[in-house]
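anyone seen this seq b4? input:
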Amino acid sequence: MTMPIRYFIVASFLFLAGCAVTPPFSDDMLHNVDRSLKPEQALKGAAQGKKVMWGGVIVNATNTADHTDFSILYYPLDSAQRPDRQQSPKHRFIARYPGYLETMVYAPGREITVIGELQGAEQGKIGDAPYQFPVIKASKIHLWPLEGDSRVHFGVGVGIGVHM
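predicted toks r here
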């Protein structure tokens, strides 16, 4: 194999490795997490106290005196622990984070992944319809960047820009 081809192959592998998405939560953080338990199953009383990792899209965020509540439309997670919006949403749940988080940052429509302990269920409403929400006490939260908000940029070529 010639030297330029070797360099090309090595550069290709390095580039692809740089594109890999690292999950936000390490294996240590996932210790004792029941990854098989879904929100619709959590409404059964036996699930209370279990540690879960769920994600989805923020529907609403509310601050109280001592915590921030997120109403989240659940999506299954992909291998990078990101909500997989190619799948159908399954249920809604409430993630209760102890403390204050800015609701303008954690805004409706943002994707989020949460690790926490199931605290039971609360009655609420979606519109005028009654709804039972599983509630988790969030210990870890990852807010995903907005689409197109990549901090890594790569480009090759020549360009001319005109600024006025």
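The helical segments are 3-19, 39-42. The CA atoms of residues 78 and 84 lie 6 Å apart. kinda curious what u guys think
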